[in-house]
Amino acid sequence: MPALHAVLFDLDGVLTPTAEVHMRAWERLFAPLCVERGVAPYTSADYFAHIDGKPRFDGVATFLASRGIELPRGTIDDAPGEGTVCALGNKKNEIVNRMFVEEGISPYPGSIAFLDAVTAAGAQVAVVSSSRNAPSVLAAAGIADRFEVVVDGTVAAAHGLDGKPSPATYEYAAELLGVPTTAAVVVEDAISGVQAGAAGDFGLVLGVDRGVGADALTEHGADLVVSDLGELDATVLDRPAREEVR
């Protein structure tokens, strides 16, 4: 067994192209709001700067702050709408779930090839996602049975775990797998995600560039960046752990 023998995958943008769906859902939420409020229009750059990889309500709050919009936080049970941060977050969730039903979803072929390779090599795997929709996305993509451990937004809230860029959810996934963090690889496509990996004592932080930029991922903590996981195989588990390189 190689020194790195667990792989902790982010979901949106790493295993499935749901990040693209989420990006369009956020645009559908914020574009009209920006017009109504008379502030700078929402762009894809806002997704990467303020939303990508964060828990949903934190993403709403961060984007609103970038436009100087103040709303009460509200509660997670607020009906979808625009009166509170949570109401907006729940409205976005309503939008994206409707898009999943209408459009369907398929995993990235290269990601499945990499998943097959590392599991065949004996590595344990888990999904660590800020999304509360992770189980339904995994089921829709036909890969739910590949992961016994899924730490998503619902699990994080139930256990009081801080969201990314905190390493807490990744650390909890490693704990559930029964492996030390130094033996685990974090796989992320978001700046907040590689920051989470870098902030923890993980063996390797692997970045997947789906649009944020390889340089940005490296700058914020990725040890290795690829444009698609199909570029790698199980030999990545043989790379020296981060503490051995320091």
| Tally of helical segments | 11
User: What is the H/E order?
Assistant: EHHHHHEHEHHEHEHEH
Helical content (DSSP H or I, runs of 4+): 40-55%
Q: Biggest sheet, open or closed, and with what strands and sense?
A: 6 strands, parallel
The neighbouring-strand order within the major sheet is 3-2-1-4-5-6
Instruction: Please report which band the strand proportion falls in: under 5%, 5-15%, 15-25%, 25-35%, 35-45% or over 45%.
Output: 5-15%
Radius of gyration: 18 Å
**Span between N and C termini?**
23 Å
The CATH topology of the largest domain turns out to be: Rossmann fold
Secondary structure: number of strands: 6
Question: Outline, from the CA principal axes?
Answer: globular
- Reading off the top of the CATH hierarchy, the class of the largest domain is best stated as Alpha Beta
- List the uncertain runs: none
State the secondary-structure class. Answer: alpha/beta
Tally of individual domains: 2
Under CATH, the homologous superfamily of the largest domain reads HAD superfamily/HAD-like
